[in-house]
Amino acid sequence: MAITVLLVDDQELMRMGLKMVLEAHEDIVVLGEAGDGAAAVNATRDLKPDVVLMDVRMPIVDGVAATTQIVESGCSSKVLVMTTFDLDEHALGALRAGASGFLLKDTPPEDLVSAIRSVAAGDAVVSPKVTRRLLSRFIGDDPAPTRTPEVLDDLTERELEVLRHLATGLSNAEIAQQLYLSEATIKTHVGKILTKLGLRDRVQAVVLAYETGLVTPGS
Question: Tens-digit pLDDT profile for the chain (219 aa)?
């Protein structure tokens, strides 16, 4: 079945360009568009897209607030944030709110399409290393843990080890190489980590690893 997408950006030309790129692929359908966060929340509720491609800097209601409302509504739509700057506190806020990842607006079209497919499938979002740069930049200003480490108590030693590697920006394949395990085994561990911690995806796991002090910027 086709992946359905809602485009959210306050610039009409940006939405037009994104729509042209996405609709060139048979497995992606653009269900609708929104020019601000409030409209995005309403459209997500009405259209129930698989993926919401969300700009973070918008008038009326920004992408962070919109992402928060979409995630807290309990709908199954995944939010993929787009931003102009790779070190953007708004993007970090959206990740903390529950976005499944973020892209730069100058991302090549093929990478954009790949990211949408990954998010729709519930897999890893674009480059975890970009997420790590964001976390290192902003959490690094205040390295003290903001969440109690006890939230990780249900994880086994192996799962904690996998989470540490995950939080440093490694893909499943790279973690498998580091730990001398199969990629399928790592994927199973990641799934168990998310289930035990009640997280939507690996991006939230990275955020939690930093917030609990399991890993620190630069580690």
Answer: 899 999 999 999 999 999 999 999 999 999 999 999 999 999 999 999 999 999 988 888 889 999 999 999 988 899 998 888 765 667 777 777 888 878 888 888 998 998 899 888 876 564 555 655 666 655 555 555 567 778 999 999 999 999 999 887 777 888 999 999 999 999 999 999 999 999 877 778 887 888 888 887 655
Q: What one-character DSSP code corresponds to residue 73?
A: T
Taking the C-alpha atoms of residue 188 and residue 139, their distance in angstroms, rounded to an integer, is 28
The Cα angle at residue 106 between residues 104 and 109, in degrees rounded to 5: 105
Reference 94, options 203, 8, 4, 168; nearest CA is 203
**Stated pTM of the model:** 0.72
Sheet containing 3-8: give its strands across: 28-34, 3-8, 51-55, 78-83, 102-104
